[in-house]
TrEMBL record:
InterPro entries: Peptidase_S1_PA (IPR009003). This is Serine protease. The lineage of its organism: Archaea, Methanobacteriati, Methanobacteriota, Stenosarchaea group, Methanomicrobia. It comes from the Archaea.
Length: 160
């Protein structure tokens, strides 16, 4: 099953699916775009060879169209609650202490414990509060133990 937090492989490295959405009846998985060269890049998920369909550079997002018969779990989005705990979740690890420090129209600013920071393979991982995805991990600053995530507000408003 393809769902938020599942892995894919690109150029021999693991990546994380941040969300699975349906736009106008077409299924897409969503992750961060900074790990790809551009549209048309190849990746593998659950043994299927897929291609990056669309890069949204303004938001560091990549959309990958899925075959219509794919077994998926559509991602449920929530609204971020500032100063509340959240979790970074993927199929290899969970970071339980992640606090939403600030949320804007397109980005979430996150605080982590310095000994439990996201790693490079965690880019694109869903940030979850109350069982709903509130954002996709985008970048971290190790010296401040802070991170940024693309907000669910952007993910919920996507159109292709």
């Amino acid at each position: 099953m393809i769902k938020a937090g599942s892995s894919f492989f690109h150029n021999g490295k693991r990546g994380t699916i941040g969300a699975v959405i349906s736009l106008k009846g077409v299924l897409y998985m969503v992750t961060v775009s900074h790990i790809f060269r551009g549209e048309g890049d190849r990746l593998t998920v659950n043994g299927m060879r897929l291609f990056v369909t669309r890069i949204l550079k303004d938001h560091n997002l990549a959309l990958i169209e899925l075959p219509p018969d794919s077994e998926v779990e559509i991602t449920e989005f929530g609204s971020p609650a500032e100063l509340e705990l959240a979790k970074l979740i993927n199929d290899t690890r969970t970071i339980h202490y992640c606090r939403v420090v600030n949320s804007g129209a397109s980005l979430l600013f996150l605080g982590f414990q310095c000994h439990d920071m996201p790693e490079p393979g965690d880019s694109g991982s869903p940030i979850v509060q109350g069982g709903k995805v509130i954002g996709l991990m985008s970048s971290t600053t190790l010296d401040t133990c802070m991170g940024m995530a693309v907000s669910s507000k952007i993910l919920g408003s996507l159109e292709v």
